[in-house]
Design a protein that fits this description.
The complex is a heterodimer of chains A (308) and B (731).
Chain A lengths: L1 E10 L2 E11 L4 E5 L6 H8 L7 E6 L2 E2 L4 H7 E4 L11 H11 L4 H14 L15 H13 L5 E5 L7 H16 L3 E5 L3 H7 L2 E6 L2 E7 H8 L3 E7 L3 H10 L3 E6 L3 E6 L6 H10 L4 E6 L4 H8 L6
Parallel strand pairs in A: 3-8, 3-9, 6-7, 7-8
Antiparallel strand pairs in A: 1-2, 1-4, 4-5, 9-10, 11-13, 11-14, 12-13
Helix pairs in contact in A: 3-4, 4-5
Chain B lengths: L1 H10 L11 H9 L1 H7 L4 H12 L1 H27 L1 E2 L2 E2 L2 H28 L4 H5 L3 H5 L5 H21 L2 H9 L5 H28 L3 H23 L5 H9 L8 H15 L5 H30 L8 H41 L9 H7 L4 E2 L2 E2 L10 E3 L4 E3 L10 H5 L13 H14 L7 H26 L7 H8 L15 H26 L5 H6 L3 H30 L3 H18 L2 H5 L3 H10 L1 H9 L4 H38 L1 E2 L4 E2 L11 H12 L15 H5 L11
Antiparallel strand pairs in B: 1-2, 3-4, 5-6, 7-8
Classes of the chains: A alpha/beta (308), B mainly alpha (731).
Chain lengths: 308, 731
């Protein structure tokens, strides 16, 4: 659905995006992750036809964002990271304005507005002035506006930024619902824990370069030749850690109260040797389990905190 | 959709009835895309803006205060004029009415200049400042629809302020002299003026991100326009300047030009003596300028809102070409209509006085008897020149014999007789008179002969100014157009290559503007040379005939060379780090300095030096053609002008061609994808075959680089495979 090929965007003295290539399938929820200044918003603005690349190609549903921006705009719904709303209008007037702006025929306009208000839980607020709405409500209103013309692709730049936990959860549920409706969602966010619940694919960008892209669990697998384990002991924790540190194919040993985390790069069939050595050393092992690696740890491993 | 609902209704009669849409709506929606486009004129932006604007309390407060202040000012003025005495006697009722009306126009213009820009200049900028602009742009609204919506909303909103003052202007009718027709006409022109002002402010608002910058620029532009109006009406050498300074009173001021225009136009329309064609052209000129300005600002604002990859230049270039063609047509039409009218009047007078259509040419005996200067029936030979050929002009009824007055009558000289259409065969004087009469009454070209000479100065002045703006505008375009445009321009092959100057890019802009200026200047020179009588008008006024060669030979060439210099300087500045905008600004101010420089000696009352500077200052050259200088200034120009022209030509041409060479060199080294110039001086080393293949491989390499904490742990497959998601979505 979205194809980005060797995309570059240079500003004077800055390579904001430096030759990134990735692909997003239809129905995917693609999380675009990166530190501040990594080039996320620049890429999103190019995808939304608001900016032109220095070189490279960007396609949305086969349409070239550079050559056919007007056609692309008809199939995307764009929600920027910071957006303003018109203060002196009511909620339905706001949506009616954008429905007219999207050239939705007058006959269908009302039903379409009702549908998106229902989807975004704005039905009770239809007559409320926009100026009286909270940030979470405005976020939902903007999302409702984005859905008015039934876009195939939603491009959301930090949709949950600045929201309280409840509003975040609401937005997350809403996005899941939209994904279930078959829409392709391209979103950027800093809140990685939520992205890991929501996204099935991710792209990690730093200093304008794409460091990784694809199914994030696959990326974890690709990156991890060593598996993390957590060993629980009844006592003699420091001695156990010392013993682990001496063993081959064991690294990154960290001991806490009764728990020792370590990485094992050997074959799983040979893990029993490690346990055997510990048992031989009379370490009272109570449990051994494989630790989960999440998106946050993946992000920290992949990036180094630089900006473009 | 409707049909399916109807079927459902038939199947289930209890289902709620589907509301049928109107016939017209269905007709528009289904069948006529053009009407659908017209339907988009019901701008959603207008509706939204109106809803928001009239909900604000500040609108009602501002409106009440404005109307109250105007009401008080007008009422106080009415009482003041009613009590005022003029020259020892009280003003008549009609005079009071006229004065009151004039002040009312001034107040209305001031209000227009203050209120409309106040709302217009923040219309689009506010969207940017509130971060709602991106949402608007990514909707299906076309750029022109956004500009149109903003314009119409601003116009309607601001017009409430203007229209509610109508009751006050009716006060002036109570005193007499002011008719409802005059008031209606004044409001008509006021509305045209306010439309232009609104569009100007909307255009400025499309330029800036911050509202404060937009406000400052809009009012700055208004002030600049007002100053131009002021100085245009008070140029040195202009006879009307003294009148304006002495007697115009309220009309002399910042808005004198507009006030004058409104008063004069409405006066002339009220005069019964104005003939049909005068009324037509009195409307045509303001309407042309109104439409041109409106289209200009509208197109500029729409272009600003276009997607970054879109072409913003070609439409403006076509606009320039068509608008210049249109004004040429209007002006020629005006001259022709005026000439025909004058010609008919003279023919009629001639018939009455002589009993025939035209007097006979002199015979050989008559010329030999009376010498070169003689009276022909009722019209004497008024002037004599040794430099021109033997020539007949019907209106002046004069004979000019350049080299033969001391020679005997020679029939060969008659062959040199130049008819207006280039006829050089005139063996029979009688026959030639008939031809002259025929040409004058039936053909177009002579129509712009002597009658049009004075007006042609105006045409030339405006055309040169137009060319200057064109050069500045198009040469200062962004250096490299977008990728999309570059691809499209690259596809222009064969004969289509001649369309390249219409494409965006400052280099194309330079070519377009210089070719355009050359065509305009050549047309004007030919027009001066063939159509206008170069030896008549100023010769009669000043006794010298500099105006002819000055206008048709030297001035267009010098000015074109000056434009070459301006274009190359702007292009050069575009290629530097300063960028196109600063390039344009720098060039503009440089030209402004060149323009204003002669004011200093003028202010010091050193008139000779003033004229020296005058000849070097291109903008003043425009006015020199536009305005008719007095006798004394003419002498200064003739005595010092020619040398300065030659000198200025050398200076401007050497600068222009040097910059052109530098620009060509730099543009050939431009890398359009990186907007960088390759280092000059050295040739790039030729790469070996291995190096080339390696670079090619690197270029095609996937950009996916998975960086690992443990480099050794990176799997080769991860580095090589493209970053594609292959898994089905997790739902």
């Amino acid at each position: 659905m979205i194809d980005v090929v060797k995309l570059r965007k240079y500003f004077p003295g800055v390579k904001a995006v430096n030759g990134i290539t990735f692909h997003v399938n239809q129905g995917d929820i693609f999380g675009f992750i990166g530190p501040n200044g990594a080039g996320k918003t620049t890429t999103i603005r190019i995808l939304s036809t608001l900016s032109e690349p220095t070189s490279g190609e960007v396609f949305v549903d086969g349409l070239d964002c550079v050559n056919e921006p007007e056609k692309v705009r008809q199939i995307i719904g764009y929600m920027p990271d910071y957006f303003g709303v018109y203060e002196d209008v009511r909620v339905w007037e706001y949506l009616d304005f954008f429905a007219a702006a999207y050239a939705i025929p007058r006959a269908q306009r009302k039903s379409r507005i009702e549908a998106v208000m229902e989807l975004t839980d704005l039905e009770d607020l239809r007559h409320r002035m926009v100026s009286d709405m909270s940030k979470g409500m405005r976020q939902r209103l903007c999302l409702a506006k984005t859905l008015l013309h039934e876009p195939k692709v939603l491009i959301l730049d930090e949709p949950a930024s600045g929201l309280d936990p409840r509003a975040r959860i609401e937005i997350r549920e809403l996005l899941k619902e939209l994904a279930d409706m078959g829409k392709t969602i391209f979103l950027s966010s800093h809140i990685l824990t939520e992205l890991s619940d929501l996204c099935n694919t991710v792209g990690i960008i730093e200093q304008g370069k794409l460091l990784a892209a694809g199914n994030w669990k696959d990326i974890v697998k690709d990156l991890s030749t060593a598996v993390c384990y957590c060993l629980s002991v009844a006592s003699r924790g420091p001695e156990a850690a010392e013993a682990l540190g001496r063993m081959e194919k064991v690294s990154a040993v960290e001991a806490f109260d009764g728990e020792i985390n370590f990485q094992y790069s050997g074959k799983i069939e040979e893990l029993y040797r490690v346990i055997k050595e510990l048992v031989d050393a009379e370490i009272p092992i109570t449990a051994l389990k494989q630790s989960d690696e999440n998106l946050e740890t993946l992000f920290m491993r992949v990036t180094n905190g630089g900006v473009a | 959709m409707d049909e399916s609902k109807n079927q459902e209704q038939e199947k289930n009669p209890k289902a709620p009835a589907v509301k049928k849409r109107g016939l017209l709506s269905r007709f528009i929606d289904r069948h006529l895309p053009t009407l659908r486009l017209l339907g988009r004129l019901r701008s959603p932006i207008f509706m939204k803006e109106m809803r928001a604007a009239f909900r604000r309390r500040r609108f009602f407060v501002a409106h009440t205060i404005t109307v109250s202040v105007i009401g008080v000012v007008i009422l106080v003025s009415a009482f003041y004029f009613a009590e005022q005495s003029g020259g020892g006697t009280r003003l008549s009722s009609a005079q009071v009415g006229e004065k009151l009306f004039e002040y009312f126009i001034l107040v209305q213009i001031l209000l227009t200049c203050l209120v409309y820009p106040a709302f217009g200049c923040t219309s689009i900028t506010d969207e940017r400042a509130n971060k709602s602009f991106d949402l608007l742009v990514t909707s299906n609204l076309q750029p022109w629809e956004i500009v149109y919506g903003k314009f119409i909303a601003t116009f309607v909103y601001s017009s409430v302020f203007i229209l509610t003052t109508i009751p006050f202007v009716w006060l002036s009718m109570l005193f007499g002299a002011i008719t409802p027709g005059k008031i209606a006409l004044t409001y008509f022109f006021l509305i045209l003026f306010s439309i232009v002002v609104t569009l100007l402010s909307v255009f400025v608002s499309s330029l800036f991100e911050s509202p404060s910058k937009a406000v400052i620029t809009t009012y700055g532009a208004m002030l600049f326009a007002a100053l131009i109006f002021y100085f245009a009406g008070n140029m040195p050498g202009d006879a009307s300047a003294a009148e304006a300074a002495e007697g115009a009173g309220a009309r002399t001021g910042m808005f004198a030009g507009v006030v004058d225009m409104l008063s004069k136009v409405t006066d002339k329309f009220s005069t019964t003596g104005t003939t049909g064609y005068q009324r037509t052209y009195m409307f045509l000129y303001p309407m042309y300028f109104f439409l041109t300005f409106c289209a200009f600002f509208f197109m500029l604002a729409s272009n600003r809102l276009k997607p970054p990859s879109y072409n913003r230049s070609t439409s403006m270039k076509l606009f320039v070409v068509f608008s210049s063609l249109l004004i040429i047509l209007i002006v020629f039409g005006h001259f022709f209509a005026a000439y025909k009218s004058e010609c008919n009047q003279k023919l009629e007078k001639c018939r009455i006085e002589t009993g025939s259509t035209l007097p006979a040419l002199p015979t050989k005996e008559e010329i030999e008897d009376e010498g070169p200067v003689r009276d022909l029936s009722n019209s004497a030979i008024k002037r004599w020149t040794e430099k021109t050929w033997y020539k007949v002009t019907w209106q002046e009824r004069r004979w000019n014999w350049p080299d033969g007055h001391d020679k005997p009558y020679n029939p060969k000289n008659w062959k040199k007789y130049r008819l207006p259409r280039g006829e050089n065969k005139c063996p029979d004087p009688e026959y030639s008179w008939k031809r002259v009469e025929k040409n004058y009454t039936e053909n177009f070209l002579p129509a712009i002969n002597i009658w049009g000479l004075e007006k042609s100065r105006l045409v030339a002045g405006v055309a040169f100014l137009f060319c200057f703006i064109t050069v500045l505008f198009f040469s200062g375009e962004p250096l490299v157009p977008s990728l999309r445009i570059r691809t499209r321009v690259f596809r222009l092959r064969g004969w289509k290559r001649i369309l390249k100057p219409f494409a965006p890019g400052s280099a194309n802009g330079v070519v377009f503007s210089l070719v355009f200026s050359a065509v305009i200047f050549t047309s004007i020179s030919l027009y001066f040379y063939f159509a206008a009588d170069l030896h008549s008008l100023d010769y009669e006024n000043t006794g010298r005939e500099y105006r002819g060669w000055y206008s048709c030979m030297y001035f267009p060439i010098v000015f074109w060379i000056f434009l070459l210099f301006v274009a190359q300087l702007t292009l050069f500045l575009s290629t530097t780090r300063a960028g196109p905008l600063y390039g344009k600004l720098f060039t503009f101010f440089l030209v402004l300095i060149l323009t204003l420089a002669p004011i200093l000696p003028w202010a010091a009352r050193v008139k000779a030096h003033w004229w020296t500077g005058y000849a070097m200052s291109p903008i003043f050259m425009i006015f020199s053609i536009w305005k008719l200088p007095s006798m004394q200034e003419d002498i200064h120009l003739v005595t010092s002008g020619a040398g300065v022209f030659v000198w200025s030509m050398i200076v401007y041409s050497s600068l222009g061609f040097t910059l052109a060479t530098i620009n060509l060199y730099r543009l050939r080294r431009l890398d359009p994808t990186r907007l960088r110039f390759r280092a000059g001086g050295r040739r790039r080393r030729r790469l070996s075959k291995e190096e080339r293949s390696r670079m090619e491989a690197e270029r095609h390499e996937s950009t996916l680089i998975i960086k690992s904490a443990k480099p050794s742990a990176r799997t080769p497959s991860a580095a090589e495979k493209p970053a594609k998601t292959t898994d089905p979505p997790q739902k």
